[in-house]
Write a structure and sequence with these properties.
16 strands; single chain; Alpha-Beta Plaits; globular; 2 domains; alpha/beta; 8-stranded mixed β-sheet
């Protein structure tokens, strides 16, 4: 059957075990869901994800507290990333048929002097830090100095990102955005080809109270080719982007885009989309798992956030119509029980469900994230892109 509406939800950073090429990234042993379950000693509950088949994805090494069940409602499997990086942009682009085949620039020693000089001259603000740093630690350690000097905090991570933090009372959000837009113009070509420039506004009175705000904005490299979102909209299919989807694709291939302030705000937008009578694809990213807990290496916080999502998922399942399809996955790992503070190279879970399904079965290991986008294209009778293989026929068996 063809589905009228497809709802795609990306649980940002919720990986399900080290990928076969994890050694290349220093991520052997990473396991986001496994380590969260271990932190709870198995004493946590994801009943809606479990009944869709989350626990059935890997029966050889079960997720603590999320056991396999006899008759999952949904189809379940894993996907393996082919892109050269493990950033959100890489993962999302590959999902939509555009694997990132060339490694983007990273800066373990900080950004080059000429780039920092240009930023300082354009912004007319001093630049602090310029090295890899945890986003929460950097405002704690340098926030007072940034406020006193009216300075920008420029830092990076293991990913291809240039992040700029500033106190909202010193450098207003719109000014920070303008500076980030300029920074974006500097890093669109090799050797400084960077995936994302991220504005990181923060507030607070001192080092103990500095907090990043929801005014974060990602200035992403524009897609370097046609994505499945372009293919859909060019064919007249409506595409709704919720969360940082609009930023990741620079607005390209998106009919309607909605900024969100949290996972729960994102789910509010999903609920609103469920109430709309439309034909098309609603694509949502829930970033709190990554930004609030993964990078901060907080397995309990990340587990609690997953349980809160699972409760909201129950409403989604109740609201789905027989001709709706829900697909859930992740864009990479960010194991809160692992070393460092960066993303982890992991396989990601894949869950597909429609009320029209009689039962679920395994989708096994999909060898590229692009299978997600190909499935959506086939459903809406849009010509396939060059990467990936649709699993539409597999989930329609006996349905």
């Amino acid at each position: 059957m063809a589905y009228k509406r497809i709802f795609g939800i990306v649980l940002d950073s919720v990986g399900i075990g080290a990928a076969p090429d994890a050694e290349k990234y220093g991520d052997v042993g990473s396991d986001t869901l496994g380590h969260i379950g271990a932190a709870f000693a198995g004493d946590w509950s994801l009943p809606n994800l479990q009944r869709l088949g989350l626990g059935n994805i890997r029966t050889d090494n079960p997720i603590p507290g999320v056991s396999p069940i006899a008759e999952p409602m949904g189809y379940f499997g894993r996907m393996q990333e082919n892109s050269a990086g493990k950033d959100s942009m890489d993962g999302h682009w590959e999902m939509m048929g555009l694997p990132v085949e060339t490694e983007l620039a990273t800066y373990p020693e900080g950004f080059p002097d000429d780039l920092i000089t240009k930023l300082a001259e354009f912004s007319k603000h001093p630049i602090l830090v310029n090295k890899p740093y945890s986003g929460t630690d950097v405002i704690r350690d340098y926030g007072d100095e940034a406020v006193a000097q009216k300075a920008l905090i420029v830092y990076t991570s293991g990913d291809s990102v240039l992040q700029i933090a500033a106190h909202e009372s010193v450098i207003p959000v719109e000014e920070l955005y303008r500076i980030c837009e300029y920074a974006r113009s500097l890093v669109n070509e090799a050797p400084n080809l960077i995936g994302r420039v991220i504005a990181r506004p923060f507030i607070g009175l001192d080092a103990e109270s500095y907090t990043r705000t929801s005014n974060r904005h990602d200035f992403t490299l524009k897609p370097t080719g046609v994505t499945d979102l372009n293919r859909l909209t060019d064919a007249g299919v409506k595409v709704i982007g919720i969360g940082k989807i609009n930023d990741i694709f620079s607005g390209e291939g998106i009919t309607e885009g909605y900024h969100t302030e949290s996972n729960m705000d994102g789910m509010d937008h999903v609920d609103q989309a469920l109430e709309q009578a439309f034909t098309g694809f609603c694509f949502t990213n829930l970033v709190d798992f990554d930004a609030m807990y993964g990078h901060r290496r907080d397995p309990i916080g990340m587990g609690n956030a997953l349980m809160a999502f699972d409760q909201r998922l129950g409403h989604v399942l109740d609201a789905l119509k027989p001709d709706d399809l829900l697909i859930m996955t992740a864009d990479h790992g960010n194991d809160p029980g692992f070393k460092g503070t960066d993303h982890t190279r992991e396989l990601v879970p894949l869950l597909a469900y429609s009320p029209s399904m009689q039962h679920g079965e395994t989708l096994d290991l999909r060898t590229t994230f692009s299978d997600f986008g190909q499935t959506i294209l086939e459903n809406f009778n849009v010509p396939a892109g060059p990467f990936g293989k649709s699993f539409l026929t597999a989930i329609n068996q006996e349905n």
